[in-house]
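To illustrate the input format used throughout this study, we show a single complete record. The first block contains the structure-token representation of the backbone; no residue identities are included at this stage. The design step must infer an amino acid for every position from geometry alone.
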């Protein structure tokens, strides 16, 4: 047990005693111990007060510690095993006091430094033989593993003369994943057929595709070539074959983890990097592709040596959990992204034709390296390059021209944007699938491109 600290009450008592001594000295009282003759009242009063105060302190310390050892406090922290980036989460702390005396204390929880929190510290008062639950809110500002330490308490003694620091409860570790809100909203809107609310286009698929789905009654507008004549004779009415998009196809993400992806939006303090937006879009499209029956895999590049992640293509919605566990702690590095090496590695490990989606942050100086890498990749795979464009450029270009300085900024932003757009178009060879969008638009654009690929049967 750590050493006790004086309480505010004790500090106030000592302050008043010092103030009284100062007043006595100003009034000419002698505070020295008498050597003979009549003693000054101050000479006897002050030592007496000190002795009484010291005795009371010793008694308070002894009785308080005896009572605490007989019935120690019990503290338990309640929080989920995983949190979502940027989502406020309520943490509950239960304090149980089995003793016969009430407990008054100041509480502070050892929150991971990567979290923002509200509601700490708190002053608590737990009645005798009862339990109290307090709550505070944490918000994860960074993905990856997180750790909560022990709960810190400064418990006031029975008489209030001192406060005892305590460390209670057990440390715990948890994981911070990308924000699941986009996935949950997509699933809800897809169930209600309202995907247009988030900009995702849907198309009627009856009679298209190459995989047989089911037989159904002929309706006006159905193609005559899809009539199943045997089923029509059996049923006595026209029956057509319905098809669906080809399943068992493969979607591979080539995720840039280099220095380009460290760019952020500036004003967004939580989850504001390009990499976080790319990871959110990757998760959403993975969910969509897995629902369609396709395989999803991920290969990263631009990582420090020995830290490249390979997630082998898998099917089934359970793959999404495995994918999140594999990538949740991934962070962009300060290293250069070698496009050529990444494409060669992907071509070696994944020879089967797939839709390869490269998530990166294109710059003009990358053109000479990215162009031959894409040419090599397109020999076997259908390739989609998704580049993230800084939102700050759009904000500069949209400024009001109310000053000469802003006019120069707007012109420079338009010139930079046009130059970048032209360079990107040349690098991807004016490919209609590839996209160059702001981070907030990436997820919707990728899902729409995926639907277009499936609808056109490009794989």
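Output of the design step:
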């Amino acid at each position: 047990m750590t050493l006790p600290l004086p309480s505010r009450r004790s500090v106030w008592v000592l302050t008043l005693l010092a103030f009284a001594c100062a007043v006595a000295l100003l009034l000419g009282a002698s505070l020295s111990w008498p050597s003979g003759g009549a003693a000054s009242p101050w000479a006897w009063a002050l030592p007496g007060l000190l002795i009484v105060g010291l005795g009371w302190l010793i008694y308070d310390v002894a009785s308080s510690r005896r009572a605490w050892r007989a019935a120690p406090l019990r503290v338990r922290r309640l929080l989920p095993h995983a949190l979502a980036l940027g989502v406020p989460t309520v943490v509950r702390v239960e304090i149980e006091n089995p003793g016969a005396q009430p407990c008054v204390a100041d509480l502070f929880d050892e929150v991971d430094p990567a979290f923002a929190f509200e509601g700490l510290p708190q002053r608590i008062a737990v009645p005798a033989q009862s339990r109290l639950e307090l709550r505070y809110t944490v918000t994860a500002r960074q993905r990856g593993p997180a750790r909560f330490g022990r709960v810190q308490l400064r418990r006031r003694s029975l008489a209030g003369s001192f406060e005892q620091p305590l460390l209670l409860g057990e440390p715990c570790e948890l994981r911070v994943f990308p924000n699941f809100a986009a996935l949950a909203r997509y699933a809800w809107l897809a169930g209600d057929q309202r995907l247009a609310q988030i900009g995702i286009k849907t198309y009627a698929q009856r009679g298209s595709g190459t995989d047989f789905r089911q037989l159904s009654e002929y309706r006006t507008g159905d193609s005559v070539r899809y009539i199943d004549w045997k089923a029509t004779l059996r049923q006595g009415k026209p029956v057509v074959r319905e098809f669906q998009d080809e399943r068992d196809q493969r979607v591979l993400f080539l995720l840039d983890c280099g220095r380009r992806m460290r760019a952020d939006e500036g004003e967004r303090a939580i989850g504001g990097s390009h990499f976080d937006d790319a990871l959110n879009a990757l998760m959403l499209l993975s969910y969509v592709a897995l629902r369609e029956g396709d395989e999803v895999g991920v290969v990263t590049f631009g990582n420090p040596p020995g830290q490249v992640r390979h997630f082998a293509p898998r099917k089934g919605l359970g793959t999404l959990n495995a994918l999140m566990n594999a990538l949740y702690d991934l962070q962009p590095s300060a290293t250069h992204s070698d496009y050529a090496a990444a494409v060669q590695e992907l071509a070696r490990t994944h020879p089967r034709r797939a839709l390869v989606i490269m998530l990166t942050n294109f710059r003009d100086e990358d053109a000479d390296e990215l162009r031959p890498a894409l040419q090599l990749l397109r020999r076997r795979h259908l390739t989609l390059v998704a580049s993230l464009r800084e939102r700050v450029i759009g904000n500069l270009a949209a400024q009001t021209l109310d000053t000469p300085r802003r006019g120069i900024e707007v012109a420079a932003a338009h010139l930079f944007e046009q130059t970048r757009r032209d360079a990107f178009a040349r690098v991807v060879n004016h490919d209609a699938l590839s996209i160059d969008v702001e981070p907030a638009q990436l997820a919707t654009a990728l899902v729409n491109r995926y639907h277009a690929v499936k609808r056109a049967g490009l794989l």
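Structural context for interpreting the output: The mean pLDDT is 80. The radius of gyration is 35 Å.
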